[in-house]
Structures are given as C-alpha cells and as structure tokens.
Amino acid sequence: MLRRPPRSTLFPYTTLFRSKDKSSTAVFIVLPEIIGTAQDFSLPDIDGNNVSLTDFSGKVIILNFWATWCPPCRTEIPHFVELYDTYKDEGLVIIGIDVDPTETPDVLKPFAAQYGIIYPLLLGTKQVESQYGGIQSIPTTFIIDRNGDIIQKYIGSRSKSVFEQEILKLL
C-alpha cells in the first residue's frame, strides 16, 4: 500500500508516493484542473481607461468580483494588496471588478485610496458577470493561469494563504 507524504513546495504539481516498507516509490505529476477559458472583456477603470483581460496575457491573474459595501470583500482587499505588492514582479496581476452599478469612480477612487488598492479596479457589467457564469454572490474570485485558463473559482471570502498557495503553483 502506498502512502502519500505532504506535497512538495518546490514542485507543487509533483506528488511522491512511498510504500510503508519503503520498498517502492511512485511519482505522479498532478496538473491543475482547468475549469474553462477566461473570457475577454473590456471595461472602464476608475480613471476612465478601457482595460481588457488580454492586456494581461501571459500573466497569472486573480480576477475578483466585489463591491464596496460587502464586508467579506473588504476583508480580502488587504490580502490582495499584499499579494500584488509581493508577486507583481513575478507576473501576478489582480483585477477587481465592481459589480454594483451605482458605484461610480467618485465612490471608488476614495475607497481605493482608503484601502491602499494599487491594482486595477474596473466598473463591471452584467454582460461580463454572465461571461463568468453569472455572479450570484460576492466576493467571487477566479484564478487564471498564464495561458488564460481558469483553474480555480472561489465563492466567498478566503484567506491570503489560500490565494498565495494557488498563485505560487502558477508563477
């Protein structure tokens, strides 16, 4: 019977199995499951510039659907700021898409300043929400790999470590 030791942090997609008596070993490469291909969009940011997902081709993307009035969304923001600051030079991009149509740049700019948000904030549309399966609850966050494939979807707030573990596999 083979038992599974902890996953390697150096090779996150490699799993090593050893028999209890250590007489045999097997190595498996476990690739992340691809949920689907991330759909391109073009949305205005809080400065009025149009931003497309394809602007970040070849990057690892955390795509977060959120709103300012959402307490779990506000809880995640400092984690996203820290992750972006730490990993942006390695190819991480974080994009926040505000799902509340009543929240204008006049609301979002001071909010971004108050929370120290340094990643792009975009004004969402129902069309973009439907491209991502319909956003029923916020926060909803997608992890997109360098090939543009969605490899994870989270509904609800998650800790920094959850997102960090996911992105480190892809950077």
Describe this structure in words.
The protein is built from four helices and eleven strands, in the order E-E-E-E-E-E-E-H-E-H-E-H-E-E-H. The protein has 171 residues and is of the alpha+beta class. The strands form three sheets. A six-stranded mixed β-sheet has the order 4-11-10-7-8-9. A hairpin with a 5-residue loop joins strand 5 and strand 6.
Rounded average pLDDT: 86
Shape: globular
Major pleated sheet: 6 strands, mixed
> Can you count the helices?
4
Radius of gyration: 18 Å
What keywords describe this structure?
disordered N terminus; 29% strand; three-stranded antiparallel sheet
Write the layout of secondary structure elements.
Blueprint: E1 2-3, E2 14-19, E3 25-29, E4 36-37, E5 42-44, E6 50-52, E7 60-66, H1 71-87, E8 92-98, H2 105-115, E9 121-123, H3 126-131, E10 140-144, E11 149-155, H4 160-170
Parallel strand pairs: 7-8, 8-9
Antiparallel strand pairs: 1-2, 2-3, 4-11, 5-6, 7-10, 10-11
Please provide a brief summary of the model:
The chain has 171 residues and is of the alpha+beta class.
